[in-house]
Amino acid sequence: MDSQTVRLQKLLAAHGVASRREAEAMIRAGRVRINGTVVREQGVRVDGARDVIEVDGRILKRREAPLYYALYKPRGVVTTCKDPQGRQTVIGLLSGVNERVYPVGRLDRDTEGLLLLTNDGQLAFRLTHPRFGVEKTYRARLRGDVSAGALKALAEGVQLEDGVTAPAQVRLLRREGDATWIEIKIHEGRKRQIRRMGDAIGHPVIDLERIAFGPITLGKLKPGEVRPLTSAELRALKSAAGMKEATAHGRDERRQTARPSRTAATAKVASAHKDAGKGVFKGLKGLREASNGGDGRGKSASGKRFDSGVHGKCQGKNDGGPWSRPAGPRSRV
Fold this sequence. Notes:
By secondary structure, the protein is of the alpha+beta class. It has three domains: about 5-65, Roll (Structural Genomics Hypothetical 15.5 Kd Protein In mrcA-pckA Intergenic Region, Chain A); about 65-105 and about 110-130 and about 215-255 and about 300-320, Pseudouridine synthase I, catalytic domain, N-terminal subdomain (Alpha-Beta Plaits), CATH 3.30.70.580; about 135-210 and about 260-300, Alpha-Beta Plaits (2-Layer Sandwich), CATH 3.30.70. It has eight helices and 18 strands. It has helices spanning about 10-15, 20-30, 120-130, 150-155, 195-200, 230-240, 260-280, 285-290; strands spanning about 5, 30-35, 35-40, 45, 55, 60, 70-75, 100-105, 110-120, 135-145, 160, 165, 170-175, 180-185, 205-215, 215, 225-230, 325. Strands 7, 8, 9, 10, 13, 14, 15, 16 and 17 form a nine-stranded mixed sheet that branches. A five-stranded antiparallel sheet has the order 3-2-5-6-18, with no helix packed on it. A hairpin with a 3-residue loop joins strand 13 (about 170-175) and strand 14 (about 180-185). Helix 1 packs across helix 2. The chain is elongated and about 65 Å long. It is an enzyme of class 5 (isomerase).
C-alpha cells in the first residue's frame, strides 16, 4: 500500500470540508470527483499531493503543513478571522504567522485566556465535539457569596434554555469582597455556557478566563502573545482527543472508532455524577469552612449547540479556505 495515499473521506475531513461521515455521504451522492471522474465508491485512496479532488465543482487546495498555536486572547478581541464592524480579531494578533490557521471553537469577546488555532480540521472537530470529552478549564469570578449548594448545582448540572448542562468539575478558589472565585472544567462548548450557568444559579459571571484546553495551559503567555505548540504538547493534545500520531510508514493509527466506547463513555458520566455528589470541588468541608469565613482552598446528538471545530466564519489570511476555484460556474458545498 502506498504510504502517500489516504482514504478519500479522511482527506476531505482533514481539510475541514466535512466530518468523515458527512464526507462519505457526499461521495455516495456523486458530489466528489478525482481527476475529473465522479467517484461513488467508499474507501478509494488518493494522493493529496498529486490527485485533483473536486467537491461540487470546487477544487480542493493542496494540503498545507499542519500548524498548531496557542494564543492568549485578551478581552475585547473577537474570535473570528474578519469582523464587519472593524473590531480587532484574534487573527490580527498573529504577527509573524503567515500561514492560514483558524480558531478552535471560540471565546466570547469579554472572555480572555487560552485559544488554540490550527489548520488541522480533524483535530479541531474532535477537540470541540462534546462526545470526545476534551475538558476546558476556566477561572471565573461570580458576583455574590456563592453557597456550597450553588456550587454543587454547577457540578451536577443546571437547567439552561437548551437543556441541562453535563456534569462539571467545580472547585472553590477564594472569596473576595462581594464575589467568589471558582475553577470550573467542562467538556461541552455551548454558546456563553459558563456565563449562562452563573445566571442560572443567581450569581452572574463578572470575569472569565480560560486557563487550559485539555492538557494545554496558558503557561507564561501574556495577553496578546502567541506561540507554537511543542511536539510533546501536540502528542498530549491528540491523545486527549482520541488520536495518535502516524507511524513512520504513514499508516494512520488513529483509534478506529470515532466514538468512545459505550462502556468508557458510560463510566465517565457515571463517575462525574458520583464525584459531583461527593464533592468534586475538593470537599464540602472546605466549602463549609469558606462559607463560614475561611478561604475555601483545599449541535450534538441531543441537539445542543456546540462549536464544531474550526470557526465557520474564518477564511484566514489567504481567503478561499480549502478551495481553489476552477473556471466555470460557481457552486456551493
